[in-house]
Amino acid sequence: MHSALELVSHVEALTSLPSVYHRIREQLDSPDGSVIEVARLVSADPALTARLLRLVNSALYGYGGQVDTVGRAVQILGLQQVHDLVLAMSISSVFAGIRPEHMDMSRFWRGSVMCGLAARNIGRGCGQPTADRLFVIGLLADLGHLVMYQTVPTLALEAERRADAGHEPLHEAERRIVGCDYAELGATLMAHWRLPPCFAEVIGAQILPRLGGEYAFDAAIVHVASNIVLADRKGEPSDAAAARIDPTVWAQLEMSPDSLSRVREDAELNLAAYVAAFFPNLRIA
Known about the structure:
The chain is mainly α. The protein contains 17 helices and no strands. Helix 7 packs across helix 17, helix 9 crosses helix 12 and helix 10 (153-164) runs antiparallel to helix 11 (170-177).
């Protein structure tokens, strides 16, 4: 049996995020954080500069090619959103060389982007001020599985097969066979990266949102989004995904199960554009 801390510590490729991300984070956390300094940090990385400008000028943000400098982009987006976007963009470089045994990486990244989009859509519908951050949290929500398939692939696959056969929920199979589940692993990775506390808390509580404390509402949003991804992977209709979600979650979010199909359709509509923006070198079916 393996602990989450043990598995995260064994994945050397996941031990750090790019230094530019950490320096931007320092600016965000500092009371003297400077838009000018963040723009300088981003501009010092040509690849990051090109991707940020391409994203801001894409149809996703609607500025239509009018933003031609990083400084202008940072002014428009703000420090918080630039931090979150740089984090999201950093993920593809951190995981570029990861090819876990038994894991379909195209399916994994498709699901991760869809989870992020669905979480953001739900957050906006609920009037959450953190809706844009929920995209990034949703994007990272399943990273525990990447750690698991990189470190204990045979055990991870056995747990997945048990769950797919309908014998028990995936997280229960993982706890019994691996020793921890994907949510606990993901939360441990977030803490290892020293990301803002909400990342670990939301990702760790995505299976049982009520355990999310002050972040229980956001955890409930990611819980619903992850069930949309599961339905997509299994080729299920949206009502099957809605039926898996506890009525207390719908009540907490003040959502109707019938609304899940609309959220799913919106995520599918924007999926290709977001994959191209955040993971330009990936080919996702």
